[in-house]
Each structure stands twice: as structure tokens, then as C-alpha cells.
Design a protein that fits this description.
The chain is mostly helical and about 90 residues long. It has one domain (about 1-85). The chain has three helices and no strands. The chain has helices at about 1-30, 40-65, 70-85. Helix 1 (about 1-30) crosses helix 3 (about 70-85). The longest helix is centred in the N-terminal third of the chain and has 31 residues, at about 1-30. The radius of gyration is 17 Å and the shape is flat. The chain starts with a helix and ends with a helix.
Length: about 90
């Protein structure tokens, strides 16, 4: 019985994770594929994406150093957090 419940949990978490990745990709696509009025708007988007990239790398390195080294469970954590945020 426990194995069946665990399998169901893994399937649900995986489905929510892939759905959240789909939503994040859709949002990024809508940000990137919009016609920009000026070149300045395009540079602002590039700077926002670069800042987001730096922030996510900093969080990844901080978690790796102070919380727990990378593992399969830690890799799934952002996907599950994104799924929770999408559901809110």
C-alpha cells in the first residue's frame, strides 16, 4: 500500500513540476517574443533576464554551500516550489 501511495506522490509531483515548467516557459516566451517599441526596451529585458540569472545562480550556490549539496531531491525542490506558486 505504501509503495502505491509513494508512486502516486511521485507522479503527481512530476506532473505539477512539468506543468510549472510549461507555464514558466510560456511566460518567458511571451516576454521575449513581444515587439519592442525602442531598442531601450529590449536592453531592459536583457538586463532583467541577466539579473534573474545571477540571482538564481547565487541562490543555487548558497543552498549548495549552506543547506545541502546538490542531490536529486534538491534538484526537484525548485520545480515543486514553482508548482506551488503557480497554484496560488
Amino acid at each position: 500500500m505504501w509503495q502505491c501511495a509513494h508512486s502516486l506522490e511521485v507522479v503527481c509531483a512530476g506532473t505539477l513540476g512539468y506543468f510549472s515548467l510549461f507555464l514558466v516557459g510560456t511566460r518567458l516566451g511571451s516576454m521575449l517574443l513581444v515587439d519592442r517599441k525602442t531598442r531601450r526596451d529590449g536592453w531592459r529585458l536583457v538586463m532583467r533576464l541577466a539579473a534573474l540569472d545571477v540571482l538564481l545562480w547565487a541562490v543555487t550556490l548558497a543552498v549548495d554551500a549552506y543547506v545541502e549539496p546538490n542531490s536529486r531531491r534538491m534538484v526537484r525542490l525548485p520545480v515543486q516550489c514553482a508548482a506551488a506558486l503557480v497554484c496560488v
